[in-house]
Design brief:
Order of helices and strands: HHHHHH
Shape: elongated
Helix content: over 70%
Number of helices: 6
Strand content: under 5%
Structural class: mainly alpha
Radius of gyration: 16 Å
Number of strands: 0
């Protein structure tokens, strides 16, 4: 997918995704436009479109980043659990808890 290219500034992408996440939590994903995200990030729409071709691509990139964050957090939490059944149960419950505690994901 194009949003995963390595040739763009990681910091710029993170800042754009952070701004998008705040808007998603505050107004909902469907109500957050590209213009809103650009304004919240303090950049032009042209800059935003340089990194994300459209709103769907932005949403997908945001969800991918957050899924990776949740997986890392939960993985670290359950790493010490030896029993596979207990580890799976803890991972599922930990994932749900993490999503519920994170306003941008709960949105």
């Amino acid at each position: 997918m194009s949003w995963g290219r390595r040739d763009r500034s990681d910091l710029a992408v993170e800042e754009l995704l952070d701004a998008a996440g705040e808007l998603f939590a505050e107004h909902g994903i469907a109500a957050s436009s590209m213009a809103d995200v650009a304004r919240a990030a303090g950049c032009s729409r042209a800059t935003l479109y340089r990194y994300f071709a459209n709103r769907d691509e932005l949403r997908l990139a945001y969800m991918n980043r957050e899924a990776v964050r949740v997986a890392r957090a939960v993985g670290a939490t359950v790493a010490a659990i030896d029993d596979p059944s207990e580890r799976l149960t803890a991972a599922v419950l930990g994932s749900v808890d993490h999503v519920r505690r994170t306003p941008t994901l709960a949105a």
